[in-house]
């Protein structure tokens, strides 16, 4: 059985098979981990480690920034006590440990919060693969998708995570290209879509992408036709209006991106999905909607280069 120990007083980390007795140096990044299985789970993201020391812990072992892939070990609380005294090997970063250990069989007592490998994850469907996980605390957190779960020879539960961030997908808005009177509404719709891509479940992501697409197209077309105020209509009507204004064979890719978002939307509605025999929106569908929204921004010239 794998063990992890966290010394809250120093932030130092210890690992081991029978107990967390071996110092890990340099100290790796360690953060709270929250499994997201339903929307309400987002409310379980801890405020701090001190408020929720019995939750799951993710210890990062590698991070590929270009691929947005993170690997590490997942732990769950061991026992029901916040801290326990463990005799550990002297830590190389602590000179005082070296002195104490010399007179104590090269061991020093530490008050650690102790964790073991997270077997709870293995009880989920597909051992958790495909589910989302939030790393961090409520004031600063990131969302990841579990793409692989493995158990090592040392009994560690090793995760491969892919970033669910919308960074690099939704381009930054070019404020100079957007009418000042419309910018507030455009920015609000953009922010809601971006926030959904970070934090919410697929149905909500598609909903916010559709809302943003309507906002973008209506305000963009207002400028195209020099209207005093934007026309308010749903996305399907805007797709037809763009075809009518520009012609059947123009703006095909643009209209297709709008159509993708529009066609995904009913899949998040139980009655529509049942009536049309559609499958449920999943993570990949939500990612497609976000990519389509980014394409729309680039097509109308509102993306900062």
TrEMBL record:
Domain of life: Bacteria
Protein name: Uncharacterized protein
